[in-house]
Structures are given as structure tokens and as C-alpha cells.
Amino acid sequence: MMSYGQLFLAVAPVIALIGLGLPLRRLNWISEAGEETLLNLIVRVLTPALIFESVVRRATVSDAGDVLLPPLAGFLLTTVSLTVGWYAAKALGLTIGHGLRTFALAVGLTNYGYLPLPIMDQVFGPESRAWLFMHNAGVEAAIWTTGVLIVTGESPRSAWRKLLNMPLLALGVALAVKLTGLGAHIPEVVWTFIHALAVCAVPLGLLMTGASFAPHLNDPKQLVNPRVIATAWLLRLAVLPWIFLLAARYAPVPVELKQVLVVQAAMPTAVVSVIVARIYGGQPLVAVQIILGTTALAVFTIPFWIKFGLAFVGLVP
């Protein structure tokens, strides 16, 4: 079993890449216009390539059950976490129009993308990526249905179109190719091209995560709300991890999915929460406070939760 120090060293390069994005944005080496262009490149080209390569070449998916369980787990666990966040926000005294909805959203959404991906690689190997991507399909569904419902108070029906995105399309195509065995007929030169795109996705995604934080650091005082941040720490980094760990320990799911849930239990708040808050009339500042607060502390808590979670779930001797 990896020690705390080894796990910390596995997390450190990930955090360093996020940290590097901050000065790059503030120095305008990544401009505001360039930020949007790079994000589009990551979401629409690089990430789909990474998903396709990971699922078709590395996944251990063998039947329909392997395909259905990860997104179902992602959807249900995210929805439960959002619900807990809602009632915690009400207990905190927040009200609609003053941060209640955004607090529930931000606390309930664990980082499911570029932060856990390299950690999964380090701890479980590249073959674990496919299970993370399939789990993330369910998280995306929860964000654009349950999450949007929480922020807007409206019906989630109009949000379903948000599920039609390139990463999800790439996942669907990759699963079809994997289950039908067509991947064996793809020429190696094509795989070389796909791999060249795929290897760019994670480092560039992490850099852009850091760059997205930079505009909010112009007035550091507004980022400090002790009551909100302390409650977010308690929920996101101490209470909500148990939802994932208990599911990983007691649910009859494959080992690969248990590994995903252990890593998800350790994650801070997802950056996408500030985007949803902006689009649907929430309080983006509350989301930014929670994202930065939980991410800063998670540098130290991620190794602990992974080490503890692996033992608790029974994934180590």
C-alpha cells in the first residue's frame, strides 16, 4: 500500500500544474480570449481523444453491467451529495438569492475531471481511466438535471440538451467500438494520432483550471468568508466522503468502480460549479470561495482519504 508521503508526491504534480496556470493567466500568457479557445480545444478535441483511447485500448469493460453501473453510481451519489448540501446550506442560514442554492451545488459536486484522472493513473494505472469516464457520465447527468434544478428551482427537462456534448459522444462511440471488438481493426497509425491528442488533455486541462481561478484573485478579501469556507471544509472534505466510501464498501460493484469511488471521496469541489452558477443565475462568488477553499485544504487531505479509503473498502491486504 502506498504511504501518505507517496500519495502526497502523486498529488503534488497535479496541484503544481493547477498552480502554474495562475501566473500564466495573470501574466496574460494565457489571455482571456485564448482561455476560451483552449477550453473549447480541451473539451471538444483533446478530452474525447483521451476518452476514446482509454476505453477502447485500456478498459476491462466486458458486458452491459460494466457499462451501466458506473454512470448510475455517479448520478446517484452526486444527487445524494447535492441534497445533503441543500439541507446544510439551510442549516447554515443561507437563503434563496443569498447563496443557498450555489452553496448546495458547490459542496455537492466533487471534482470529477482533471484532478482525479492523473491520481487514478498514479495509484491504479492508466487502465482505470475508462471507469472514471463512465462514472463521470452519470455525474454530468446529475449536474445538468439535479444541479440545474437546485440552482434555478425549475424543471430539469430543459437541461437534458446539455448532456449532448463531445466527451459524452466520445464515450458512447468508444463503448460501442469496445463491445463490438472493432478496436482491433483500427490501424496503428490512427492510434498514434489519437494518442498524440490524448496526452495533451490532462496537463492542458490542469493549467486551464488554474487559469480560471486567476480573475477571482484580484480582490482576495472577497474570497474569505470564514463561515461558508469552514462549513464547506466540514462537508466536502469530512462528511460527504463517507457517502462514497460506504457505497464502495457495501455496494456489489466491480473493484474498478470501487477504486473510482475511493478517489472521488477524496476530491474537493468541482470547478464546473462556478460555471453552472454563472449560467443559471446563482452566486458565482460563493462557488469560487468553496472551490478555492476546499482545493487548498485538499492538497493535504487527498492522500489521507485515499490511504484510509483503500483500507476501509478492502482494496489492500
From TrEMBL:
It holds the Pfam family Mem_trans. The chain crosses the membrane at residues 68-88, 100-119, 131-151, 163-182, 189-208, 228-248, 260-280, 286-306. The keyword Coiled coil does not apply. One of its GO terms (biological process) is transmembrane transport. Its main location: membrane. Keywords: Cell membrane, Membrane, Transmembrane, Transmembrane helix, Transport. This is AEC family transporter. The lineage of its organism: Bacteria, Pseudomonadati, Verrucomicrobiota, Opitutia, Opitutales.
